[in-house]
Amino acid sequence: MTERAIPWPMMALAVVGFAYMLLPIFVVVLAGLTAGEFLTFPPEGLSLRWVAAFLQSEKYLSAFFFSFRLALMTMVVATILGTAAALFLARSNVVGKAALRAFFLSPVVLPGVVVGFALFAFFIYSGMGLSRTIWGLWIGHILYSTPYVIGTVGAALAAYDDSLEEAARSLGASPWRAFRKVTLPNISQGIQAGSIFAFIVSFGQFEVSLFLSAPNAEPLPIAMYNSLRYQFDPSAAAAGIFAITLVIASVLLTNRLVNIRRLLGRQQGQ
Amino acid sequence: MTEATAARATGARLAAPALSRARLTWLLVVPLLVFLTVFFVIPVGLLFATSLNPQTIGQVTVTSDLTLDNYLRFFSRSNYLLATGRSVALGAIVAAVTLVVAYPMAFVIAKTAHPGRNTALLILVLAAMQLDMVIRLYGMMVILGDEGLVNQMLRGIGLIGAESSVQLMYNFLGVVLGLVQFALPFMILTLVGVIRGIDPSLEEAARSLGASRRRAFFRVTLPMSLPGILSGSLLVFALSISSYIVPALMGGFRVGVLPIHIFQQVAEGARFQFGATIAVILFLLSAGAVAIYLRVGARASGGRA
C-alpha cells in the first residue's frame, strides 16, 4: 500500500470533486427541512413544515404516486424484455452480435427529447390514442430502462457457468425445466438488481417524458420542473427528500444483491 | 476406432437438442426486437421522413411530398447555425471540464484497495447518477442563484456589495456547471475501469528507474488512461448536447441550444416538420459521437484481450 498510496494533491482534488457531485443533493435535503421560507446561509433552523406541505399537496403527492406506478409498470416489462435479450446475447453465436447489443443499449445515449418527440408524433400519426397518456409514457420509459436490465443480467450471466444447464439437459431435463431449476436460481439476484435499476431509471426520467406527459399524466420530475421554472417551492425539495431516500435505498439494495464493484468493472470491459 | 464411433454417436445426440436450442434462443430476442422496431425504429424513421416534408403548421402526418426546404432553411439561418455551434462547443467544454474534475475522483476510487471503502465510494457515484436530474438541479439553483448560497456568502464576507450579485447561472456558465454535475458519474465510471486496468508494476518500473512520482504519473499512468479518457469524453459529449433540462433550468432559456429549439418549434409553434429537422440534426450529432465511442471502446478492449 505504501508504494501505491494516493498522492495528496490527487486526494485533495478528489475531495473537491466529491463535494461538487454531492453538495447539491445535500442542499436539497436541507432546503426541504428548512424552517424558513427558503434556504439561507446559515440555515434558519430545521422543521418538518415543508415535508408536511408536500404530504398535503395535491400536485406533488399525486405526481409522486403517478411516477411510482409508472416505474413499477416499466420495471415489469423492462425486466422481462431485458432478461430474455441478455440470455440471447449470452448464448447465441449469431454474426453481428456486438452490433445487436449496441442497438439494444443505444436508446440510453441517444437524445431523449428526440425519441420522446418521435414517439409523440408516431402516437398521433398512427391513431393509437397513446399520446399524453400513462401508456405512451410507459412505452418511452421501457425504451430507456431495458438497457440497464440487459447490462446487469448480462453481468450475472457472464459470471455463471453455462455448462451447468447443459448438464441438466443431457440428464433429460426439458429446456424450460433446466432453465428454471438450474440457470434461474443462479442469475436471479442479477435479475432483481436489474429490475431495481429499471425502476429507478424510470422514476427519475425527465427527457423522454417531456413530450409525452400531460397535466393529467404528470410524472414527478415534470411536475417539479414546471414549478421550478417560476419559483423555489420548498415542498418540491421535500418531495426530493423522498426521491433521494428511494434512490439510496435502491442502490444499497442493489449492492446487497450483486457485487457493485464487479458489475461496474465488467461494464467497462465491454 | 471405438472411440471415434462413440464420439460420432455423442455428436449426433448433441446435434438434435443444439438445433432446437438455437431456435429457442432466437425466441428470446423476438419480443425486444419487435418492441424496438415498433416503438423506436419506426417512430425515429418517421421523424426523418417528417423532416423532408414541407413545413405545414399544425400538421403531423407524413406525406409523400419530399423536399429539402427545411434543411436549406436550417443551414441558411445564422440563428440555427449558431445554436448548432453552441451545442457542439458546450459538449466539448463540458467534456473537458468533466474530465479534469472526474480524473482525480476516478484515480482515488481505482486505487482504494479496501473493499468496503471502495464499494462505499462507488455507491455514492451510482446514487448521484441514478438520482433524478431535476432534483440535483434544484440544489444547484439554490447554491448558484442570484440570491443563492454562494452570493449570500460573498455578501457576508464583504467581497461584493449587499445589493449586488455574481451571475453564476441563467447564462452559459450556469449550463456548463449544471452539465458537469450531470455528466460526472458517467465519466468517473468509465475512467475507474481503465485506471484499474493499468498494470501498477509499469509505474513502479518507471519509479525504480529514477522517475519522480509526478513524472511517473504524467509519463506512464496518464498516457495509459487515454483510451478511457477518449471514450469517456465522447460519452459525455453525446449526453451533454442531448440534454434539455439543464439548459432549460440553468440557462433560463437564454442559452439556445438544439434541444431547446426543438421544444420551442414543436410545443410552442406546432411546426412539426422544422422541429423534426432540428431533431434529426441533433440525433445524427449524438449518434455520430456514440458510434466513435463504440469503435474506441472496441479497440480498447480488443487491445487488452
Question: What this model shows, in words?
Answer:
The complex is a heterodimer of chains A (270) and B (305). Chain A has helices spanning 8-33, 49-56, 58-91, 97-105, 112-125, 134-158, 163-170, 175-203, 209-212, 220-228, 234-257, 260-269. By secondary structure, chain A is mostly helical. Chain A folds into two domains: 1-47, no CATH class; 58-269, MetI-like fold (Orthogonal Bundle). Chain A starts with 7 loop residues before the first helix and ends with a helix. The mean pLDDT of chain A is 88. The longest helix of chain B is centred in the first third of the chain and has 50 residues, at 2-51. The radius of gyration of chain B is 26 Å and the shape is globular.
Compact description:
The complex is a heterodimer of chains A (270) and B (305). Chain A is mostly helical and 270 residues long. Chain A contains twelve helices and no strands.
Q: Which regions of chain B are unreliable across 5 or more consecutive residues at pLDDT < 50? A: 9-16
- Order of helical and strand elements of chain B: HHHHHHHHHHHHH
Could you tell me how far the N terminus lies from the C terminus of chain A, measured between alpha carbons in angstroms? 29 Å
Radius of gyration of chain A (CA) equals 22 Å
Oligomer: heterodimer
Radius of gyration of chain B: 26 Å
Number of strands of chain A: 0
| CATH fold topology of chain B | MetI-like fold
Name of the level-1 CATH class of the largest domain in chain A: Mainly Alpha
The main pleated sheet of chain A reads as: none
SSE series of chain A:
HHHHHHHHHHHH
CATH level-two architecture of the largest domain in chain A:
Orthogonal Bundle
